[in-house]
Amino acid sequence: MAPMASCIDQSKASKAPQGMGLHGVLNVNKPDGWTSHDVVQRLRSGLGIPKVGHAGTLDPHATGVLPVLIGKGTKIAQYLLGWEKEYGAVLQLGQRTDTQDAWGTVLEEFPLESLTEDRIRSVFATFQGSIQQVPPMYSAVKIGGQPLYKKARRGETVDRPAKTVVIHDLEIQRLNIPEVAFRVVCSKGTYVRTLCEDIGNVLQVGGHLKWLQRRRVGPIHVDQALEVESLLGGLEFSHLDGAFLSLDQALEGFHAVEVDSDDARKVLHGNAISWDRVVNTYVESRVSPKGDNMVRVKQKDGQLLALGRGPVFQTGKGGPVLAIETVFS
Predict the structure, then answer these.
(1) Domain count, the chain
(2) Of 133, 150, 109, the residue nearest 192 (C-alpha)
């Protein structure tokens, strides 16, 4: 859905937690009624941290895991957006709304007398795997340089190209017509609201999203997520018990290479270095020197310096190099 007006209460901000020199990804449980931007603003102002962002927007009425990027963590958002996501959701059958969820205007209602549990389970099964989704009008997707939700608020509807998303797992957990509670594990860019409406359309009874919780984003789970007010209450980062990922932990899906101290200085200035100087120093032997791989670039003491890509052939370099994309200096 489109962002709502901020509902944060600045008067409740308390002392900042200890350890704010850390940089990485904080696992925050987004409250119902808050936009993802609300959470970022509250933590930025309440903790006095100038650099705070997030990876993966949640609709205002959705709750659950919001990866909040702190300090140098704001540099890695683009690398985290590909993380797999898991949701718990409730589909309400029999009604279609303009926002594809329970907070929009009902456009159509359908009788449900002929609908059976077997038919619902059969249709759910067809949505597993690679599917095509058309982004909803009430979304932040930009067409013509403007978010779709702004056009929707003006009563406009525009053509949106379908995109391929992957539903890795789709499991009905409770079925009590007209409600279907389910769990879904999906790729980036998947709209669970749209999934609900599409299922309802195939069933020919309409449908919309009634409830949504994001349970996991990559390695970050909701059972380790922290409440915003707890963070503002002075919680120490050393006691986060898995709710905080360092830059290196957040990026561990990329293999690592090591460089010596001389090359480390070049890396920290964003300069490419000869691929031959790192090709034999893989921390992870599974990285193939024949491919263009994204890698973590580390010093021999384990300090993360940058993200790079290699082997890359650059004009005038005479051979393959490790090109530096993002420096964590």
Answers:
(1) 3
(2) 133
Is the preceding omega at residue 178 within 30 degrees of 0, hence cis? Answer: yes
Per run of 10 residues, the mean pLDDT along the chain (length 329 residues) is 39 41 88 95 87 91 96 92 94 96 96 96 98 86 79 81 96 98 96 97 98 96 91 66 87 89 94 81 46 82 92 75 92
Burial class (CB in 10 A: 0-12, 13-18, 19+), 269: exposed
Are 237 and 265 in the same domain? no
Pairwise CA distance, residues 52 & 42, whole Å: 10
- Is residue 32 located within the same domain as residue 116? no
Reduce the DSSP state of residue 101 to 3 states and report it.
strand
Q: What is the CATH number of the domain that holds 319?
A: 2.30.130.10
Length, in residues, of the chain: 329
Q: Which residues are catalytic?
A: 59
| Contact of 206 with 93, CB cutoff 8 Å | yes
pLDDT at 190: 95
pLDDT at 235 (0 to 100): 57
d(C-alpha 271, C-alpha 315), whole Å: 14
**129 assigned to some structural domain:** yes
Interatomic CA distance for residues 120 and 94, integer angstroms:
12
Measured torsion, CA atoms of residues 74, 217, 247, 311, in degrees rounded to the nearest 10 = -90
- The residues with which 167 forms a beta bridge, in sequence order, are 129, 186
Residue indicated by tokens 């997030």: 54
Could you give the 3-state DSSP secondary structure of residue 3? coil
Is position 288 within any domain? Answer: yes
Host domain of residue 196: 85-217
- What does the block give as tokens for 122? 């059969």
In single-letter form, the type of residue at position 76 comes to I
Residue 293 is encoded by which pair of tokens? Answer: 């791989």
Q: State the Cα torsion 78-186-140-135 to the nearest 10°.
A: 130
Instruction: Report the amino acid identity of residue 86.
Output: E
The amino acid occupying position 217 is V
